[in-house]
Specification:
9 strands, single chain, two-stranded antiparallel ribbon
């Protein structure tokens, strides 16, 4: 087996040999435990049939193991100083393509089309904490052809992704992720497994994108608008949040009727609604709003 990059001594050697310094604005923390990296790849269920998009390869610790399991790995790294290091550490793998790009500006659909014949890819990443949500929502909201997303994120964020209605961590991110995916918490990773050590624990979570939409028919834009309003001011009732922030063109009395028609109490708070209840409420508001708009043309 090729020598692993992800050991404290090897990582330190690579950093020192290349005069590399960590940049806080990129949220760089390199894993130095190869067992955890092996478990990440196992959690992602990578096989020789898979084309993998890796976000933030760093010095190639995870990239190396992915390449040994996958058909192809496209590694997107924003830090130009890491590109020559990656070329040294994993450049001998024929199935790795390294790109110096910002993932939020990368044409992911083009990668899927050209590198995997338009078939769904798997995404694996050790994501910087500050950019976790924008990256995930770009993949999900734009309906990229992605089979699964296995990511290392802040433990608290992973807990929010899989939280249920009524739980402290439950919020707009919980609803959004579960709207598109089935979630599975794979492992908790302690700060000591990174260089440098982050201040909080991390977690690996796998998101399997739903093969079929969770709702047969729904106005997706309205659904997420309602969710955003519901969690915008957590202490307010759902009614007041929708009335004050919704800009739905509906009176408070009409909203009360719609909330009750969805089988909810008038004074319910948004954090108490399940994913399914948000769907029922969205359809109720869409149906009655359309009728109201037609009648008042």
């Amino acid at each position: 087996m090729t020598q692993r990059i992800a050991t404290p001594s090897k990582t330190k050697e690579i950093i020192q040999a290349n005069s590399f310094y960590f940049k806080k604005n990129f949220g760089q923390n390199f894993l130095i435990d190869s067992n955890i990296l092996e478990n990440i790849v196992e959690s992602a269920e990578i096989t020789q049939k898979d084309c993998v998009l890796e976000i933030g390869p760093g010095i190639g610790s995870l990239t190396q193991i992915l390449a040994e399991k996958a058909k192809k790995v496209i590694a997107i790294e924003i830090d130009s100083h890491l590109i020559p290091i990656l070329q040294k550490t994993v450049g001998n793998y024929h199935n790795i393509e390294i790109r110096n790009e910002d993932i939020l500006k990368t044409d992911i659909d083009d990668i899927i089309e050209k590198e995997n014949d338009g078939k769904p890819i798997k995404v694996v990443a050790n994501l910087p904490y500050y950019i976790t949500t924008p990256i995930l929502m770009d993949l999900l909201e734009n309906h990229r052809k992605v089979e699964s997303i296995t990511v290392m994120v802040q433990k608290e964020v992973a807990q929010r992704m899989q939280a249920k209605a009524g739980e402290k961590e439950y919020g707009a991110l919980s609803v959004a992720v579960q709207y598109y995916c089935h979630t599975k918490m794979d492992m908790i990773v302690q700060p000591s497994c990174f260089m440098p050590k982050p201040k909080v624990a991390s977690a690996v979570i796998t998101l399997h994108l739903r093969k079929e939409p969770i709702f047969e028919q729904i106005d997706e834009a309205l659904f997420f608008h309602i969710v955003k309003c519901a969690f915008g001011q957590r202490r307010k009732t759902l009614l007041n949040s929708l009335y004050n922030q919704g800009n739905l063109g509906l009176t408070k009395e009409m909203l009360i009727q719609m909330i009750q028609s969805a089988g909810l109490e008038e004074k319910v708070r948004g954090e108490a609604l399940t994913l399914e209840q948000f769907g029922i409420l969205t359809n109720e508001i869409a149906k009655r709003k359309n009728k109201y708009d037609i009648e008042n043309k």
